Amino acid sequence: MSTQIILTAPVENLGAEGDTIAVADGYARNFLFPKGLAMPATASNLRRVESLRKKREASLAAQLEDAKAILTKLTKQSYTIAAAAGPDGKLYGSVTSADISEALKKEGIEVDRRKIVIEHAIRELGVYDVDVKLHSEVVTKVKIWVVGPDGGSAPAAKSTTADEKAGRKTAKADKKK
What we know:
Layout: E1 2-7, E2 20-24, H1 25-32, E3 38-40, H2 43-74, E4 79-82, E5 90-95, H3 97-106, E6 116-117, E7 122-124, E8 126-135, E9 138-147, H4 162-176
């Protein structure tokens, strides 16, 4: 025998929230109903799910509009983060998504740190492009300038000749002897 149910939450290999499906009686009675994952497909429950679906669609549309508004603000400029760094331009720590979120907040843009995606750890002074996922349909890149506490950027890289490198290697080898 099978029972018609309405899923109240997404269930793997079964369906998404709001789907009406047929499952075995025991599966519905012993697993889905007690865990709150489904409810019987009665006329009143179908009406209730339909009204909830309309509210959810309106909410999602409003979230999309908010994300697009934030997108226009984010793409207009770049943002600067001051971080303590050594003389070689390497940071003593790293710039995290929370630091970037704080920098955006100072500019009047509220973005949750979990929506900021840093591919590789930011551990040196410089310019970085960071992904910001504002909505499932709205993703943008933000330019972040990581500068030293005095506002300076990375020092010029020293050029080392092959002879100097060889000299250092032989000096180290002589110390070991």
